[in-house]
Amino acid sequence: DAGITQSPRYKITETGRQVTLMCHQTWSHSYMFWYRQDLGHGLRLIYYSAAADITDKGEVPDGYVVSRSKTENFPLTLESATRSQTSVYFCASSDTGGDSQPQHFGDGTRLSIL
Amino acid sequence: AQKVTQAQTEISVVEKEDVTLDCVYETRDTTYYLFWYKQPPSGELVFLIRRNSFDEQNEISGRYSWNFQKSTSSFNFTITASQVVDSAVYFCALRVSYNTDKLIFGTGTRLQVFP
């Protein structure tokens, strides 16, 4: 029972580089989400996806790109990393089923941009 | 606008004390869901409870209890007889739209329980 896994757990990169954070879930949940966690802001939604090939912006989408070609994967790409994108990134999934099931989170990716 | 406010940034207590974490929310939706998550020092987010807007019954789970009051738009979380293992950041969250399942989080309350 792997659940939801994120990789890498830690990443250091330089300003201007492209970096992709991976998220994989084994539950076949329809919804997937990317959040970033910053001190004083809690968790803020970057992008979400209601199903394969359906994605939409959240609260802080600028500088990020997502795709969802398969239900189980939801990669997040920083096309040209900036220092302001240094953060902890969490992926989550849920299967609403009409009863608002809770979102289940991965363990997070700590990303540092130098 | 939808918003979740956790006014307590940090709380420190001594073991065995009771502690209440406050959560105040704003929404115009009549159907909504409230959640609490725990983030221990190891960093993962652990789901604790979900409550829908039509169910104002308080809930108790062991040492944890939740008080949902629509009249004051609050969903407070109480830990009875706190333990060191309760030390964590606790987040309250609001789900505002049935179709998109998006969560809006508060900024979190860091609870430190000292032995």
Account of the 3D structure:
The complex is a heterodimer of chains A (114) and B (115). In chain A, strands 2, 4, 5, 6, 9, 10 and 11 form a 7-stranded mixed sheet that branches. Chain A has a 4-stranded antiparallel sheet with strand order 1-3-8-7, with no helix packed on it. Chain A contains no helices and 11 strands. The radius of gyration of chain A is 13 Å and the shape is globular. Chain A has strands at residues 4-7, 10-13, 19-25, 31-38, 42-51, 54-57, 64-66, 76-78, 87-94, 104-105, 109-113. Chain A has 114 residues and is an all-beta fold. Chain B is mainly beta. Helix content of chain B is 0%, strand content 52%. Chain B is built from no helices and 12 strands. In chain B, the strands form 3 sheets. In chain B, strands 2, 5, 6, 10, 11 and 12 form a 6-stranded mixed sheet that branches. A 4-stranded antiparallel sheet of chain B has the order 3-9-8-7, with no helix packed on it. Chain B has a two-stranded antiparallel ribbon with strand order 1-4. The A-B interface holds A 31, 33, 35, 40-45, 48, 50, 56, 58, 88, 90, 92, 94, 96, 100-108 and B 6, 33, 35, 37, 43-45, 47, 50, 52, 91, 93, 95, 98-108.
